[in-house]
Amino acid sequence: MADATPMLETRDVARFFDVSRPPLQRLLAGEGKRMLRAVDGVSFSIPKGTTLSLVGESGCGKSTVARLVVGLYSPTRGSVIFDGRDLAEARADSTQRRRMQMIFQDPYASLNPRWRVRDIIAEPIRAFGLSKDKAEIEARVGQLLTQVGLSPLDGAKFPHEFSGGQRQRISIARALSSNPEFLVCDEPTSALDVSVQAQILNLMKDLQQRLGLTYLFISHNLAVVRQVSDRVGVMYLGRLVELAPAETLFETPRHPYTRALMEAIPDLDMTGRQRIPVGGEVPSPINPPSGCPFHPRCPLANDRCKAEIPAMMPARGTPQTLVACHAVEEGRDRMGAPLVEAVG
After folding, report:
1. 180 with 215: CB under 8 angstroms?
2. What is the separation of C-alpha 227 from the centre of its chain, rounded to a whole number of angstroms?
3. pLDDT value at residue 61
């Protein structure tokens, strides 16, 4: 049974980027600074041994959250807590820093093409001082390659000699080499063929069960998310709009944006049910709309939605779901009905 103590917790985390023109050009044009709100007030926790997935459209802030929780970006506001310690404090301690690793999206870009695989995997072992004995390091690299389904003999090869799926296995072996407890997986299967995706996902689930790993999984693929997740968070324009157990979210989505995402999944049974597609474009994070960020595209929006930012709270009827939506709070969403009926 998974430990209920959070491995990672974010509290009102925000990250803004200054995208202003140079000061002289701003002065001549009479304009102020322009801030891009990539992440704007995200809070969640991940119990040890579990998987939280973040989903949403491109540009919603998923990957920025991933970089915030491993310390590649510092938050503009809020805090990240890693196993009870502030992330900045934990990152300053190498024994804590080695406990978290990241698996990147593109296995073709995340491996040094000039290094042999054995050196790529051994680098964290040397960097964290886990071993200085050459024979011991070589044995550990062989063990890691075997663990991810490759041969120890593959350590002598270069990355270009492997397929995409094999390269991602090497990336996973590198991430595991420092004996981490927490892995951030930033769309680790999106660059791979569907059959290879299944192999990598099965490998990651097996490693989690055997090693007790905790995952933050970033993806836009709902089928992948359903397979790997214990809980799922849906992001829109830098904010979490829904957070729920995986099966609850897929069986009974509550936020209008989540429901629209689910209704976009192809209907293989050809039931002919009417759907409402998500209209319009995602607003600019430089100039986000007032009130609920989804209201310009939401079929259930009213005047309150345009003026007041909804808070995350337990949803009516599904208290295990946290949702930021005035329509759900007011009972206007007609839970369980197709979105088109809720509008009607």
Report:
1. no
2. 15
3. 92
Phi, psi of 65 (to 5 degrees): -60, -45
CA-to-CA distance for 321 and 245, rounded, in angstroms?
A: 7
Give me the DSSP letters along 251-307.
HS--SHHHHHHHHTS--TT----------S-PPPTTSPPSSSTTGGG-TT--HHHHH
Assigned token pair, 88: 């900045």
Best-predicted range by mean pLDDT (5-9, 22-26, 320-324, 332-336): 320-324
What are the contacts of 128-131 at 24+ separation with CB within 8 A?
128/94, 128/97, 128/98, 128/178, 129/94, 130/98, 130/178, 130/179
Query: What residues does 244 pair with on adjacent strands?
Result: 232
- Cα separation, 302 vs 175, in Å, equals 47
DSSP state of 184: E
pLDDT for residue 108: 85
Q: What is the pLDDT of residues 143-198, one digit of tens each?
A: 999 999 999 999 999 999 999 899 999 999 999 999 999 999 998 888 788 888 88
267 — phi, psi (to 5°)? -90, 90
Question: What is the DSSP pairing of strand 318-323 with strand 214-218?
Answer: unpaired
Q: For 74, what's the count of Cα atoms within 13 Å in the CB-facing half-sphere?
A: 4
- Residues 209 and 51: their CA atoms lie apart, in Å, by 11
CA distance 57 to 55: 7
Closest CA to 34 of 21, 20, 22, 24: 20
Alpha-carbon torsion 130, 170, 206, 67, what sign?
positive
Q: How far apart are CA 14 and CA 288, in angstroms?
A: 14
